[in-house]
Amino acid sequence: MRYDETRRRFIRNVALGALGLSLPGMRFGLIGGGRSKVVISKDPGVISEDLSVNSRALGSMLDEALAALTGKDPIDGLRSIFSPKDVVGIKVNTLSGRRLSTHPELAYAVAERLIKAGVKPERIIIWDRFDSELREAGYRINRTGRDIQCYGTEENYDEDVTIHRNVAVCFSLILRRCTALINLPVLKQHEIAGVTIALKNWFGAIHNPNKYHDNGCDPYIADLSSIGELKRKKRLVICDALLCQYEFGPSYKPRYAWREGAILVSRDEVALDRVGMEIIDRKRKEAGLKPLRERPEWCRYIFTAADREHRLGVADLKRIEVVRV
Q1: Which of 276, 249, 275, 241 minimizes the C-alpha distance to 192?
Q2: Band of pLDDT at residue 160, cut at 50, 70 and 90
Q3: What is the DSSP string of 100-143?
Q4: Is 199 helix (H, G, I), strand (E, B) or coil?
Q5: 107-111: long-range pairs with CB below 8 Å, 24+
Q6: At what angle do helices 5-19 and 55-70 cross, to 10 degrees?
Q7: Does domain 82-318 have CATH number 3.40.50?
Q8: pLDDT digits (tens, 9 = 90+) for 18-33
Q9: Which DSSP category does 71 fall into?
Q10: What is the pLDDT of residues 92-129, one digit of tens each?
């Protein structure tokens, strides 16, 4: 795609017109008054009935979402968030196989735009837990050369344990290598936690996530995300909501999956998860299911992440500006 001046002006005008904002003094992800911004970019034609992805439509959705988030051309917006000196880790979620994992088309589209923004390909790492899961989801494993890197942590974790509040974890050495992180989760329900979207995706960065599923993963997910090493490096979250699931997750159950055809973009993972809850609840209501909040342990960790102790983002819908493009 060519980023000519006409397209730059168009995206800039769409973003600023939708938000009623001007560029000077604008903070990414925040609108002012302690509010956060979540951008939803949607195109029903981006994913077909046979679940194939229209890469061109997805690229346009991504560009418009980044423009709406940053108030700039998408590439200039990324330059404002990432430096050419960064090693950028793109944390995908490939737990649920080919269908309900982060689509490779999205991950590589993000990587390509980072390259246009000045980050060298070999300084971009698409990663998750295991090579085998990445391959199953359609990714190309690559650990060498001057190309986009893509590989799993495997058994390569810190030798030392990081202890913080209620968690004691060893981080992936990939996370240690990265200086900046982009979170690329999938929008889906989770039978233990309620939902698994942005915050819970970081369970794939530690050696012992199985230890922290009691009480709907609360407060463990919030405690993990508030660890300085992780908290400092997180820059952006882009949620894959092309194909979503509203019941019996996180494993793929075709009966409960639906084509939302959207991506959600924010710099506030808590706000994005809260908006994601609403999307899943809308679908649950259509299917005649009870809302997520009727199970007391479900989704509680999202609100814990927003409390005075953790302060990781905004969970109050009244303080979240949802921008649709």
Answers
A1: 249
A2: very high
A3: SSPPHHHHHHHHHHHHHTT--GGGEEEEES-HHHHHHTTPPPB-
A4: helix
A5: 107/139, 107/184, 108/148, 109/55, 109/58, 109/59, 109/62, 110/62, 110/182, 110/184, 110/238, 111/148
A6: 60
A7: yes
A8: 443 333 223 344 555 6
A9: S
A10: 999 999 999 999 999 999 999 999 999 999 999 999 99
